[in-house]
Amino acid sequence: MLVDGHDGSVNSWASSDAVRRSMMSNRRKDTRPELALRREVHRLGLRYFVDRAPLSKMRRRRADLVFPRLKVAVYLDGCFWHGCPEHHSVSKTNAEFWATKVANNRARDEDTNRRLEEAGWTVIRVWEHEDPAVAAAEIKAVVEKAKRYRPKNR
Fold first, then answer.
1. Per residue in 21-73, pLDDT tens?
2. What is the reported pTM?
3. Residue 144 — left, alpha, or beta (φ > 0 → left; ψ -120 to 50 → alpha)?
4. What kind and span of H or E run contains 142?
5. Which residue segments constitute the domains of the chain, with CATH numbers given?
6. Coiled-coil regions in this chain (predicted)?
7. CB of 143 within 8 A of CB of 49?
8. 125-147 b/e with 16+ CB inside 10 Å = b?
9. Residue 28, by phi and psi: left (phi above 0), alpha (psi -120 to 50) or beta?
């Protein structure tokens, strides 16, 4: 939020005060879909780190679930913020701003995937609309495979 001038008026990207308040109340972590996914993954017996940067040189690109010894990073992407092909719809107000914002988020996601994969990580992306139990089973399969192929001398 930017305060513009001595009168306390707000200069913001939001189309209204109500929209600004709503967007500011969105959580960055511990969202309902994230908690549901973590609960299912934990129920399957997997233990993980939460909200952690897989690589120290990428501190601002934090994964939702991280299995560091196995080099597996899980990102739970919101349909609106990351442009889900099934559910994303362009905002009617500030359409150009939001289209640019989502395009930048997607480009950053692709760059994050590329950097992690180049460093030997497996990246799993889950959409917030996906069934947490199904996503957790897929995560478990990837983690179990990583355990089988992990070098023993670590």
1. 554 555 567 899 999 999 999 999 999 999 999 999 988 899 999 999 999 99
2. 0.80
3. alpha
4. helix 132-149
5. 27-147 (3.40.960.10)
6. none
7. no
8. ebbbebebeebbeebeebbeebe
9. alpha
